[in-house]
Structures are given as C-alpha cells and as structure tokens.
Design a protein that fits this description.
- This protein has 187 residues and is of the alpha/beta class.
- The chain is 20% helix and 29% strand.
- The chain has four helices and 19 strands.
- The strands form four sheets. Strands 2-5-8-13-16-18-19 form a seven-stranded mixed sheet. Strands 3-6-9-14-17 form a five-stranded parallel sheet.
- The longest helix has 15 residues, at 23-37.
Length: 187
C-alpha cells in the first residue's frame, strides 16, 4: 500500500508539505490554539478540554500558559506533570514525546520540522522531520530551542538561552549556543 503525505511526514520521510491533505489538520490546530490562547486565567477545565482535543496525548496535569502554538498537535505526546510557561512553540511534523515532570521556561521552542539542503526541493515544498524525545524530570530555562532529532535524557537541565543541537545525556546540565555540557548532576 502506498503511503499518503501525512504518513510520510509522521514517519520522517520526505513529503509534500503543500499537499491539500494537511489543510484540515492545520485548520483544526489553528482553531484550537486560537481558542486556547483566548482562554482566561482560571478556565482550567476549558484549557484541558482543548489540549485533550488538540494533542496526541496529555494528562490532567498538563499546564501550558497561553500563548501556545503548534503545527498539528496530534504528534505531541505528554506524560504526567508538564508545565510550559508563556509563548511555547512546538513544530510537530514528527512526534514530540515529553516525559513526566517536565518544566519549560517562557519561549521554549521544540522543532521537528526540517527542509532539504537542495533548494529546488525546498522551493517545491518538500520537507521532512525528525522526532524529539524529552525524558522525565527535565527543566528548560527561558528562550531555549530544541532542534529536530534531539533526545534529552532524564533529569537534565537546559540553561536559559540554549540552542540544543546534540543529544543531552541524563543527569547533566547544558547551556549556550550550541548547548554544551556545564556539569554532571548527581541523581
């Protein structure tokens, strides 16, 4: 059986990002994030209802301060307690998996979307993605960026302003652009 463009996208293969197959997916994600971002403080039940409709999976302990934006939502999977501060952005052409007890400072961005090096392919709307996996007990300072294909181990800390270009080992603190090891964290 031949894969459609959505299946190719989710599997991290080259796909046509301009395909009409994505029109409804994008429209739904934009409508739900817009609705979410208009909620008021104290509307916890409404926020959770929207997140459960938007995201692939999340728990009752998922808290995201508006504004929040994502491409599709259905590729985002959050376990247990998760807190994201203001202006969180997740480009989820591939899967983003976040373990329990994860905290993200304001303006944390997670990218799975990639584009080919070949300009001709890029200009035709060809894209691909690489999944991101974030372990348990991870803390991000503000203004962090996680690039496609990254795995961040359990009990890691990503210092404010970091750009994560390589996998982060468990029980470490990284920081900078590109993020480098700052210290080992005793478990």
């Amino acid at each position: 059986m031949m894969k459609n463009e959505r299946d190719k996208m989710i599997d991290g293969e080259l796909y046509d990002a301009l395909s009409p197959i994505f029109d409804e997916d994008k429209k739904k994600a934009r409508q739900l994030t817009s609705e979410y971002n208009l909620t008021k403080e104290g509307q916890k039940e409404q926020r959770l209802r929207i997140l459960k409709e938007l995201l692939g999976t999340c728990s009752e302990l998922t808290f995201i301060e508006p504004t929040f934006k994502c491409d599709y939502g259905y590729n985002i999977h959050i376990e247990g307690l998760f807190v994201a501060n203001f202006d969180c952005l997740m480009l989820d052409s591939c899967e983003i998996r976040i373990g329990k007890n994860c905290f993200m400072g304001p303006r944390t961005c997670i990218y799975t979307a990639c584009h080919p090096i070949n300009a001709g392919e890029r200009n035709r709307g060809i894209s691909f993605g690489k999944p991101v996996k974030i372990g348990e007990d991870v803390w991000f300072g503000g203004n962090c960026v996680v690039l496609p294909g990254i795995t961040i181990g359990d009990n890691a800390i990503v210092a404010a302003g970091s750009v994560v270009t390589k996998d982060v080992q468990a029980n470490t603190m990284v920081g900078g652009n590109p993020a480098k090891l700052i210290k080992i964290i005793e478990p």
